[in-house]
Structures are given as C-alpha cells and as structure tokens.
Specification:
By secondary structure, the protein is of the alpha/beta class. Helix content is 43%, strand content 19%.
C-alpha cells in the first residue's frame, strides 16, 4: 500500500487548521519573517518508521520551498538517535509545522512498530496479522498504511469493499445460511463474503453455506483447532477477539489463516520522535 498527496491532503489541511487556527502567535511574535534555519528530525525511542512522506507534505504545504531530505525510509527499524530527515528553509514554516508533522510521524510509527511485533511473533506460522475498522475517525487511510509498513495486512477498508456478516446481520436476515444466501444474491460476484461465528455449532452451519471466510470470534484455542480440522482448507479462517501479544502465538498454532487485531490501531504507544533546529547538513 502506498500513499498519495491527493488522498492525504485533506487530512493534513484539517490537522493544520486545527493547530494553527488564525495564526501561530508564538512563532509570529518571536521569529523574524525572513529568518531561515536548518533542522533535523530524529528518533528518541526504538521504532519502525512510518509517515515520512506525510511529514514532508506538512512542511511543503506551509512553504513549497522547504527542503526536506529523507535520511530513513518508511519500514526502517530505528534506534534512538538516528536521523529521520533534515530540513532547511523558512524558520516560521518549520516551527509552525513541527507539531503536526511529529504527531503524524509518532502515531504512524507507533502503529507500524506494534504491528511489526505481532508479525514477528507469528513468523513461524502461516497466519497473517490483519487490522480492523477500529481506527481513529478520519485517519483510517494513514493508520492502515502504517499497518502495512509494519508488515501487517489490511482487512476491508470500510463497509463498501467486502461483506462481513456479524451477529446483528444474522438476526435480521433470519439465520446464518439465510444471511450468506442474501449476500451472494445482492452483491457483485467478485466481492468476498465473510461471516462471524461464536460457536462450533454456528461454524458448522456457516461452513455448509459457502462463505469465503469464516471469522472465529472469541473462540478457545481448542475450538479454533477443531474449526481448522473441520474446514480442511475449504474456507479461509480468521481468528478475532481480544488477541494480545501474549496470546497471538497460541492462536497462530491452531492453524488459522488470519488473525485480526484491533489493538494495532486503537491501543499502541506513539513513537518518541523529535525535531531540533540546527545541526542539519541540508544547505540553505
């Protein structure tokens, strides 16, 4: 997955408008309009970098003449002290954009870092780590991008690109088989159908109804293992429900194909990343 300026621009504009409002009064009051400076962005904690392009776009939006030289690329593992990027240009633009750029870098790198830990834990097994729709409203594009930077896989992006039949849909449709049949009848044949089940009894019904994926929600390891045996490769299986770094290996050992983890985008620690004026090698 990659990002492009056209898709990210509205997010950056909203973030800058929120932060700057009618103007950066501190910078305007203390920094001469004509002042130029260099600066560098560096990691202060170990992390997987994500969001370098987004940070660059923040500064370029404020001043197209800003020079932003990347020293690391998204996906790189950073040790404390490593320089991510060097900047040169308008001091006012650099100081005004600092917090918004760092907010993006810190949060996206935090997501990428947490995802990478999950991916590494299940590396010996065929299961893929996938994200969910439990994202910050308005930031799903960026957060799901960060998941891919960390080595994870994107689940559906929204309600529009795949069918995921959950318990309330099943109730309204009249049953598991009925819900799957209705979905098949009313969606394009190229769209996949996934259904969530909570018990092995429900799983057996779903299996005969022919979905593409069955989500095993909050099942025990023994139940997931049995579901894998019963499916025998006829359908992809996804494990879901409060899976942590402490439990993900046990889940992967059951033989499921996917492990969805909402915590990738809703419970993570932002990376510690800072911007300091001066000492950059970028020439003014």
């Amino acid at each position: 997955m990659s990002l492009n300026w056209r898709a990210v621009r509205p997010i950056i504009e909203l973030a800058l408008a929120e932060d700057i409002g009618t103007g950066d009064v501190t910078t305007a009051a203390t920094v001469p309009a004509e002042a130029k400076t260099t600066a560098f962005i560096h990691a202060k904690s170990p992390c997987v970098l994500a969001g370098n392009d987004v940070a660059r776009w923040v500064f370029e939006y404020l001043d197209p003449n800003i020079q932003y030289a990347e020293r690391k690329r998204d996906g790189d593992f950073l040790a404390p002290g490593e320089v991510i990027a060097e900047l040169a240009g308008s001091a006012r633009a650099i100081l005004t954009g600092e917090r918004v750029a760092l907010n993006f870098l810190q949060r996206l790198s935090g997501i990428a870092t947490r995802t990478a830990r999950y991916v590494e834990l299940v590396r010996p097994y065929p299961a893929k780590i996938v994200d969910t729709r439990k994202t910050t409203p308005g930031l799903r594009l960026l957060e799901k991008y960060a998941v891919t930077v960390g080595g994870g896989t994107n689940h559906r992006f929204g309600l529009y690109d795949a069918v995921l039949i959950k318990d309330n849909h099943i109730k309204m449709a009249g049953g598991i088989a009925e819900a799957i049949a209705a979905a098949r009848k009313n969606i394009p044949f190229t769209m996949r159908v996934e259904i969530e089940v909570e018990t092995l009894e429900q799983f057996k019904v779903a299996l005969t109804a022919g979905p593409d994926i069955i989500m095993l929600d909050n099942m025990t390891y023994e139940e997931m293992t049995e579901a894998v045996r019963l499916a025998n490769g006829r359908v992809k299986l996804e494990a879901s429900g409060g899976i942590t770094e402490e439990t993900v290996v046990a889940v992967a050992k059951t033989g499921v194909d996917f492990i969805s983890v909402g915590a990738l985008t809703h419970t993570y620690s932002a990376a510690d990343i800072s911007l300091d004026v001066g000492e950059s090698k970028v020439k003014l």
